[in-house]
What we know:
Helix content: over 70%
Strand content: under 5%
Order of helices and strands: HH
Radius of gyration: 16 Å
Oligomer: single chain
Number of strands: 0
Mean pLDDT: 90
Structural class: mainly alpha
Distance between the termini: 17 Å
Largest sheet: none
Amino acid sequence: MKTTTLGVHETLELHELMTFKSLCLTKSSTMSGFVQDNELINLLKQDVSQTKNHIQTLQQFVPRKEQ
């Protein structure tokens, strides 16, 4: 079975995407507590859910140390 490893630049890009998505998750979660419009609250909650899924998907590509 062939194992594929990411290059250094790909690992850095992945880290940057994960950082950005984490920031988006934090911002949407925080802002939903300040918003009073129900439609906007629903949009923010939807964004939180989708962003969590995006982060989980990206985590599949994070290089793991072999034991």
